[in-house]
Fold this protein.
Amino acid sequence: MHHRAFTVAVRLTLAVVLALVFSSGEVTALAEASPAQNFETRSLPIKSLPRNTIFYPSVAKRQGLTGRICLAYSVGATGLVQNVEVLESAGTILDDHAQKLLAGYRFEVPSDWVATGGAEKRYRIGFIFELTNKPKVARFEDTITTVVITGGGLPGG
């Protein structure tokens, strides 16, 4: 009997949370950055960017999706991105594309990166997706490195 009551309570709580999220019309912060979490104010130098992936996702363009995504990440000893976390979401399609773009970045790290605690540092990067036939998307604060990706809007969109 207690198990059944617990299950009903969990379902009810989940239903209320989902209703609040979807009724707000916009999902913004998935993972709030805690005040104690410090982000570096400057990004590491970029060694290389992903090839042929900096484009507006066609499905997002067809659906008229725009928005901004803020990702938190760290960088391992080889310069690869690790521990990515979505701090601000624009929806699954744009979030996934932003994460794919970031995963392709390679950063320059010093040879003593791990020994000096570099791999523990956290960075933020913003991705803004804008369509030419839609209003401009709000920019991030100056301390967040930002990549703006613009696509041609579809007629009538």
